[in-house]
Amino acid sequence: MADRMILGEGVVYSTDSNETGLNNNVIVCGGTGCGKTMSIAEPRILETMESSLVVTVTKRRLVRKYSGLLRKRGYDVQELNFINPSESDVAYDPLAYIRTAADVSFFAEALVMADPRKEKSNADPYWDAAAISLLSAEIAYTTMTKSNATFADVLALHRQLKVINLGGGSEIKTTLDDKFAKLELLHPDCFAVNCWRSFRQLPTRTANCVFGALNVMLDTVFTDDVCKMIAEKPRIDIAGIGERKTALFISTSAVNPALHSFINMFYAQMFKLLFEMSEKRSDGVLPVPVHVLCDDFATGGRVLNFPEYISIFREKRISVTILLQSESQLRAMYGAENMTTIINNCDTYIYMGGMDIDTSRAVCERLNRPLEEVLYMPIGQMFIFRRGQYPITTQRYNILENEVYIKLTKAYEESQKKGQERLEALRKKPSVLEVAPPPDLKGIA
After folding, report:
1. Within 10 Å of residue 140's Cβ, how many Cβ atoms?
2. 3-state secondary structure of 244
């Protein structure tokens, strides 16, 4: 039985693509405070019964509120917490999913290019290529020389690297030359050695710049807390997301670009692994559909190859809901052509109002209405576009009248109240250790 998709008041669709003939990709544009989270994101979580769900949240209350409900429905619920890594249920160690040289190159590129600052950079792509080559060499060397390696081992190797300026010569000298020379004796044409040769052929000053930029990026993304999480927490089973009912909440901050880079790397690697997993199956699809819900999608940076991935999501039983403030945000992230590709591959487009003129004009063209009807639309009104049917004008979904939501909110508020009471008791009796009880979900399905 497929999940339902609630898009607005009285507008509900099945997520069975065989039944609807459409993909389940949804793009939502609406200004701050228009209700994207409560009217689109939360109903999607409420209606999830059969599909796996991966949710990026900047509002952590959603994790606390819906975890118990999803567990009751038979979900394996996990949280990847980048705000407070010590509170994370699981860890994301990129090295755990690297098997081939192609995997190394893909991840190195995803890491280097995930930096949101590159969206507005006019730097020569040569610098990014050089950084990708250096990081690829370090990753490949680590996986070839150390069993059960983690990304912490890659970082340890990187911290040993120093470029030595001896002057003259066609190649630079570094503190890692001996390590790669030994590897070259055993595997003279391996991927790690070839990438290392590329880096060593750089001029000394250029090599120092590339190394320095990569060093800053790694230290920014892989903080001590993140490295500790990688070392201490169990790894996410990405394949399991497509094999059994899983709800993965990814908690992030809307104002920390370093976290965005890490999450974008995770998404790039997750999509790649899910595609490869489905390709190995005789039917070519995932056993369990996977829906990715991206709240505040534009607060992050670019996900590597996302425009290409979204074009083939449907055939693998993958779908995505993208919440934006305007189309302009998407253009800034991916460029005009890729923005068009992403929008064209979303069979559902929802507009909830906003002040962006370009987005309003685009909606006007879809509606064939004057600009003022869109630009000055009433608060709470929305336009829903579904491929193959005329646009729908309706009101945003009032989740406050949903019976399950009412019961869930009541249980959540009661648990928060009890937790606060216990916290006050702890302050009065610091020797007493108590844990706030989870919400009582009896009678909520």
Report:
1. 25
2. coil
Give the pTM.
0.86
pLDDT tens for 29-49 read: 999 889 999 999 999 999 999
Q: Supply 259's token pair.
A: 């976290």
- Cα 126-128-131 angle, rounded to 5 deg: 110
47 by Cβ neighbours in 10 Å (0-12 / 13-18 / 19+) ranks as: middle
pLDDT at residue 364 above 90? yes
Over residues 223-243, the pLDDT tens digits come to 888 888 888 899 999 999 999
**How far, in Å, CA of 237 to CA of 43, rounded?**
26
Cβ atoms 346, 322 nearer than 8 A: yes
Q: How many residues does the chain have?
A: 445
pLDDT band with cut points at 50, 70 and 90 for residue 437: low
CA quadruple 304, 308, 314, 315: dihedral, nearest 10: -110
Question: Is the separation of the CB atoms in 291 and 319 below 8 Å?
Answer: yes
Edge-to-edge order in the sheet of strand 392-395 = 76-81, 246-251, 52-57, 290-294, 318-324, 26-29, 348-351, 381-386, 392-395
Exposed/middle/buried for 99, CB within 10 Å: 0-12, 13-18, 19+? Answer: exposed
Name the residue with tokens 């990709």: 25
Q: Identify which of 343, 353, 294, 350 has the alpha carbon closest to the alpha carbon of residue 322.
A: 294
CA 338 to chain centre: 18
The 10s digit of each residue's pLDDT in 99-144 is 899 999 988 988 887 665 555 555 567 788 899 999 999 999 999 9
Residue-wise pLDDT for 245-301, tens only, equals: 999 999 887 766 667 777 888 888 999 999 999 999 999 999 999 999 988 787 656
Question: For 255, phi and psi rounded to 5 degrees?
Answer: -120, 10
Residues 6+ apart with CB under 8 A from 414: 439, 440
Is pLDDT of 428 > 80? no
pLDDT at res. 133: 94
Rg (CA), the chain: 24
63 contacts 249 by C-beta, under 8 angstroms: yes
Residues 6 or more apart whose CB falls under 8 angstroms from that of 213 comprise: 127, 131
3-state secondary structure of 7: strand
Q: List phi, psi (to 5°) of 171.
A: -130, 150
Q: List phi, psi (to 5°) of 111.
A: -70, -50
